[in-house]
Design goal:
It is a single chain. By secondary structure, the chain is α+β, with helices and mostly antiparallel strands. The protein has four domains: 1-27; 31-112, Sandwich (Immunoglobulin-like); 125-352, Beta Complex (Ferric Hydroxamate Uptake Protein, Chain A, domain 1), CATH 2.170.130; 364-408, no CATH class. The protein contains five helices and 20 strands. The strands form five sheets. It has a six-stranded mixed sheet with strand order 8-9-12-13-10-11. A five-stranded antiparallel sheet has the order 14-15-16-17-18, with no helix packed on it. A hairpin with a 2-residue loop joins strand 10 and strand 11. It holds the Pfam family Plug. InterPro entries: CarboxyPept-like_regulatory, FAD-binding_protein, FAD/NAD-bd_sf, Plug_dom, Plug_dom_sf. Residues 132-255 form the TonB-dependent receptor plug domain.
């Protein structure tokens, strides 16, 4: 009996081992072991955290993972066609097609090439190699920026910052300005000392020195601050040279720098541009005409319109600009010399509402309503009575006259 029991136990153990070995053999025959090693193509070092994606038509879904510290990963696959993809930040991705056979064990080695270069680089400003620091900006840069005024071009200068247009305040240029100098400081003369030259003609701002700015509106007017760059459109400009420092003596009086603007000249097709953003809409149309047929007499014309609404609730925060330019270039090519006659007619008009948002109608009935109700819509604005008398006078009546009118209506 004991011997028979031993034979039975031995038989069942041999049978179980046989079944397990057969099952294991079937599993091996149905699967493929795939080992992937990834390394750097230059340094030959293993690449950790490489994303590996493995897909097969004969299997459902996509498998994969990330390589370990040795740059290795092991995948389970099935016989048939497969595709493996590798990607890692800073390296070019790779993709390879595979044909897996039964009882196949593969070790794939991938070498990823570094990809540290950008696909495209666009230079929008060029640095001049002169005695002074100068930057050259052409139409390519303006086309990339989609400018609303000349202020947007200042962001291309070294140290410049690109920001949203501020059309409700004076846009002045600041070249070689010390840090910490506020706009109201007596030493904030960078904009006043910067000369703007358009086609060889200097923009004269000396008339601004003959008036005294109103303290309540100093941020909105350009008195004593040089050229307000909001009034300059960029659509007619061919190139701009900005010199930070003192240029040649031919440009005359300046202390901070030079902005040399050269406008488009020559026959060409009709150009039009429309721009709309959250605060403004701009439209431009321009064309160059060859009146002689041989480029000896060329006329260029352009019109620009900008409507900026900083705050739709307050019309006094709006800014509108209309610019027009008509330029003529006439050349005579004679035997003794070549003569060129340049003439231009330009117009730039800007409408900005700088009155106080509080305003008093000029009739005693409205003044009485202001005194009684405390809050009364006055013309285009509204305000509390406490600040109306001192801050909302429109220039036709003084505070004393308003006080007399209030006493008379009591």
């Amino acid at each position: 009996m004991i011997l028979k029991s031993i034979h039975k136990v031995f038989f069942f153990r041999v049978l179980s081992a046989t079944i397990v070995s057969v099952g294991f053999g079937l599993h091996v025959s149905a699967g493929v072991r795939l080992v992937v090693n990834v390394s750097d193509a230059v340094t030959k070092e293993p690449l950790e955290f490489t994303a590996v994606t493995f897909s097969q038509l004969s299997a459902d879904g996509v498998s994969g993972g990330h390589t370990d510290a040795d740059g290795s990963i092991t995948l389970a696959a099935h016989p048939g066609q497969a595709v493996i993809e590798l990607s890692l930040v800073g390296y070019k991705p790779q993709r390879r097609s595979l044909s897996l056979k039964e009882r196949d064990s593969l070790t794939l080695k991938f070498r990823l090439e570094p990809s540290n270069s950008l696909s495209e680089v666009v230079v929008t400003a060029r640095e001049g190699y002169n005695a002074t620091s100068a930057s050259l900006i052409d139409t390519t840069a303006m086309r990339h920026l989609q400018t609303s005024s000349f202020t947007d071009l200042i962001g291309l200068l070294p140290g410049g910052v690109t920001k949203d247009p501020e059309m409700n305040t004076v846009n002045r240029i600041d070249l070689r300005t010390a840090t910490g100098v506020s706009p109201g400081d007596d030493y904030a003369t960078s904009a006043l000392g910067t000369a703007f030259v358009v086609d060889g003609v200097r923009m004269n701002t000396d008339a601004d020195m003959q008036t005294t700015p109103d303290a309540n509106r100093s941020a909105r007017i350009s008195t004593g601050k040089g050229v307000d760059m909001r009034s300059l459109s960029t659509d007619d400009i061919e190139s701009v040279e900005i010199v930070r420092g003192i240029p040649s003596v031919e440009y005359g009086e300046l202390t901070s720098g030079l902005v040399n603007i050269r406008r488009k000249s020559g026959a060409g097709r009709l150009e039009a541009r429309f721009k709309a953003d959250t605060q403004s809409q701009l439209f431009y149309v321009g064309k160059g005409f060859d009146l002689s047929g041989d480029d000896s007499w060329v006329v260029n014309a352009g019109v620009d319109y900008l409507d900026s609404k900083i705050d739709p609730r307050d019309r006094r925060e709006n800014f509108k600009r209309v610019t027009g330019s008509l330029r003529s270039v006439k050349r005579w090519n004679g035997p003794p010399a070549r003569v060129t006659w340049n003439s231009s007619l330009s117009y730039s008009g800007a409408e900005t509402r700088t009155s106080s948002p509080l305003r008093i109608p000029r009739d005693s009935e409205s003044l009485c309503h202001v005194r009684l109700k405390g809050l009364y819509p006055c013309g285009e604005g509204a305000g509390y009575a406490g600040g109306i008398v001192s801050a909302a006078i429109d220039g036709e009546r003084s505070a004393a006259a308003v006080a007399d009118e209030l006493r008379r209506t009591e």
